[in-house]
Specification:
This protein is mainly α. The chain has two helices and no strands. It has helices spanning about 10-70, 75-120.
Amino acid sequence: MGSSPTPGTYEHSQASLVADVGVLIAKERLKRKLAKTTNRAQRARAELAVLEEQLVQVREEAADARTRSIVSEAPMDRHDEREATRQLEALERGANDLRQEIARLEVLQDQLLDQLVALS
């Protein structure tokens, strides 16, 4: 005759299977979150690259406006300098915000990778 399973064996293997499925689901969730975070970081880096190119041009324009303002002392030139300076400051704030966002996303990526490794 066949031997009967040890009491609790079925329940143990069922619990183990449920735990394994839970780990697989958690891994998939982490992988999706990691992919989204990576995509967001890539987009932010691309945006920052464009912004930094704009900053080079706007810095030159602001420096030229500053020079014209000093040389001519005309009210319109002073106004142009203030506008160029405001635009430069706004772009610099935007670039700094993007740098902070990228740093935050990189930390999040590291955390997600750590969690994924811990589940492996």
